[in-house]
Amino acid sequence: MALELEGTLRQKLGVQSGTSARGPWAKQEFILEYPDGNFTAQACFTAWGQDKVAELDKYQVGDRIKVSFNLKSREYNGRWYNDLQIWRIAPAGQAQAAPAAAPVYDAPAPTLDDMPGDNEDDLPF
């Protein structure tokens, strides 16, 4: 499930890194403050991977950003934990590329006179 949210970058937590069986990894969490009705709310997002950490590094606390993210949950020892994993960060208000529009044809629709052959009724009944 992919979601998007615009808000203000309130805090960037430290970069965490390590090495797993699949190689090196890095992640950084950050706090996004966003409008929620008449109030503001905050959510903690995770930038997984060195490329996403580098992308987050372009933004400073106080910047308005738009994040695209996936919501994931997992169970550990009978408790459930939610993870908001981003897959895109962009400045807030930046227009996304519009999907390609269907081609427009200006030719008129064919008529019965355009059909090949003679225009007499060929039906046997």
Write the layout of secondary structure elements.
Blueprint: E1 2-20, E2 23-36, E3 39-48, H1 50-56, E4 64-76, E5 79-91
Antiparallel strand pairs: 1-2, 1-4, 2-3, 4-5
Description:
By secondary structure, this protein is mainly β. It has one domain: Nucleic acid-binding proteins (OB fold (Dihydrolipoamide Acetyltransferase, E2P)), CATH 2.40.50.140. Helix content is 6%, strand content 55%. It has one helix at 50-56, and strands at 2-20, 23-36, 39-48, 64-76, 79-91. The longest helix has 7 residues, at 50-56. The mean pLDDT is 85.
What structural keywords apply?
single chain, 125 residues, mainly beta, OB fold (Dihydrolipoamide Acetyltransferase, E2P), five-stranded antiparallel β-sheet, 6% helix, elongated
Sum this structure up briefly.
By secondary structure, the chain is mainly beta. It is built from one helix and five strands; from the N terminus they run E-E-E-H-E-E.
Shape: elongated
Number of helices: 1
Look at the structure and give the CATH class.
Mainly Beta
- Helix percentage: under 10%
- CATH fold annotation: OB fold (Dihydrolipoamide Acetyltransferase, E2P)
> How many discrete domains?
1
What percent of residues are in strands?
over 45%
CATH superfamily: Nucleic acid-binding proteins
Number of DSSP-assigned strands? 5
